[in-house]
Design a protein that fits this description.
With 481 residues, the protein is mostly helical. It has one domain (4-480). The chain contains 20 helices and 2 strands. It has helices spanning 8-24, 33-52, 69-92, 99-118, 122-140, 147-178, 183-188, 190-195, 197-214, 223-229, 232-257, 262-284, 290-311, 314-348, 365-368, 370-384, 390-404, 408-434, 446-464, 467-480; strands at residues 58-60, 65-67. The protein is globular. The two termini are 29 Å apart.
Amino acid sequence: MVNFMLLAPEITVVATGLIILLIGVFMSPRTKNVLGYLASLGVLAALVLTIQSFGTVALMFYDTVSIDGLSQFFKLVFLAVALIVSVASIKYNENSDHTEEFYTLVLFATFGMMVVASANDLILLFCAFELASLATFALAGFEKQNAKSLEGAMKYFVIGAVSSALMLFGISFVYGATGTTSIPAIAENAAFLAQSPIGIVAVVLLIAGFGFKMALVPFHMWAPDTYQGSPSVVSSLLAAGSKKMGFVAAFRVFILALPALQVDWQFAFAILAVVTMTFGNVVAVSQTSVKRMLAYSSLAQAGYIAMAFVVMTPMALTGGIFYTLAHAFMKGGAFIATATVVWMITTQRTGNLDVPDHLDSFRGLGKTMPLAALSMTVFVFALAGIPQTAGFMAKLVLFSSAIEAGMAWLAVIAVLNSALSLFYYARLVRYMYFLPPEGKKIGMPFPYAASLLIAVAGVLIMGFWPEPFLQWAMDAAQVLI
């Protein structure tokens, strides 16, 4: 007998999406604003149900779905991002004809990510990947009149299709060698893969497929253009949510299914982690578009998280998993702060309207919109790893795990990269507080303010009181160990 209460968060998210789609058809654009509150309420309910189910362990649907510490932690990550995005999108979709489509796509993308977190079979994993990807492809190109939005969406779609093909190709090799798509059964039969050249080919193809989702260099080509072209609230979902889907899938596939090939994929991840964090930070320095700067910074953060695959100790896995939640609040909030500035520039019709997220748009933000400036300062300092923020705690655990494992060289590279990132984050803070404003003071819309406060609270609570979150991350890491 299937206990459907274990799937209550997923059912809540899907039901909310379907209800919004059905009732939105019969509403006028002016009354559709209520749909944003309904979506946020549905996500909040799913978040509470997920936290209540922590500690539950179960296998469902012929062992294709695994409810465990790892799946529950990543559901928490995806729902936290969905909540931040849903609340901020109330203002973004104000008086829009397409509000119900927007929220349905956000909720279905979140549902796909949640299923990826629980997938214990490669076929279910792939199908959930595709559900989340198709929804985010549409969201990236949601502003149909914006050429940059369409260009970013097309790049995302084309490269995403190629990555899906590579991933499926890799899965087919694994199935061919082991005769199964079940992750635990593959681990039992992985000796066949390890003894055959097919194993190396499968690892290369799977790394390429997952590398696209994780935005690891050189599979990152889509990310800067897509993050810049997409509506800022969608960029928040992609950078803070969709990327973590690639990490949880990689954790399950490489660590749980392919331990026999660990030497091969560990070496590959060592190269990818170093190249990704270095390339991301170096290129971010020269960016004048804040969304592009955040995109390249996001690559660097992916490089840090990928260190967990290299070090592979319980502490490193705990640090990598903890980092995904910290990054969700930091990066999700940073893109919402950018969305607030883009809204200010477009409503006031001042500054560079072609690139509303230009650095110059942030001049004097401390005077024109103090809450947005303060929030952005918290987010960028957390991303840089300034003490008593979520970013500092995550880096402390992850970098120290590398030193303990005898990989001091990796920790040194990561620390140097963090130091470099402080340059372009500090430059943004200088623009906000030390340069004169271009416009007059403007009141911030409530949905943006609420969304920013949720993200700031997440960053500071994880920084000052990290114990419960680290314990959840440890429980998730235990699944992999």
